[in-house]
Amino acid sequence: MATHTDIRPFKIAVPDSQLQEIRAKLDLTRLPDELELPIGQEWEWGIPLAVLKPTIEYWRTKYDWRKVEEHINQTLPQFTTYVDSANHGQQEVHFVHKKSNNPNATPLIFVHGWPGNFLEVNTPP
């Protein structure tokens, strides 16, 4: 019988409905007119439309989450377990346990905060 502290294998599996919702939101995106700002201040009021428009188009038409999801699941051994927190009780944590090919390697724990994640140090597909 599994306990709350057992380490369980985990695979990322985003539901199709969530991907469809993101695509629909991108399709419905309406952008304001570009602000005329002095050179060097283009980012003072947020992301410039010259950057945002191609980013939205890329996410709408070219970004392949399933390819990324498959890459993550195939290259990073993922797990979940629960840890006790003095102030918050048991909290579920997700982690990657990637073993080195070097038998003399020093173990490393990579701990990140929000909004960061372990993918920042992973090679994308």
UniProtKB/TrEMBL annotation:
Identify a single GO molecular function assigned to this protein: epoxide hydrolase activity
Keywords of the record, alphabetical order, are: Aromatic hydrocarbons catabolism, Hydrolase
Q: Which SUPFAM superfamilies would you find in this protein's record?
A: alpha/beta-Hydrolases
User: Which Gene3D superfamilies does UniProt cross-reference here?
Assistant: alpha/beta hydrolase (3.40.50.1820)
Q: Where in this chain does the record put each Epoxide hydrolase N-terminal domain?
A: 7-121
| Alphabetical GO biological process terms | epoxide metabolic process
Record's InterPro entries?
AB_hydrolase_fold, Epoxide_hydro_N
Highest taxon in the source lineage: Eukaryota
Q: Which family does it belong to?
A: Belongs to the peptidase S33 family.
**Protein name, as recorded:** Epoxide hydrolase N-terminal domain-containing protein
Native source species: Thanatephorus cucumeris (strain AG1-IB / isolate 7/3/14) (Lettuce bottom rot fungus)
Tell me the lineage of the source organism. Eukaryota, Fungi, Dikarya, Basidiomycota, Agaricomycotina
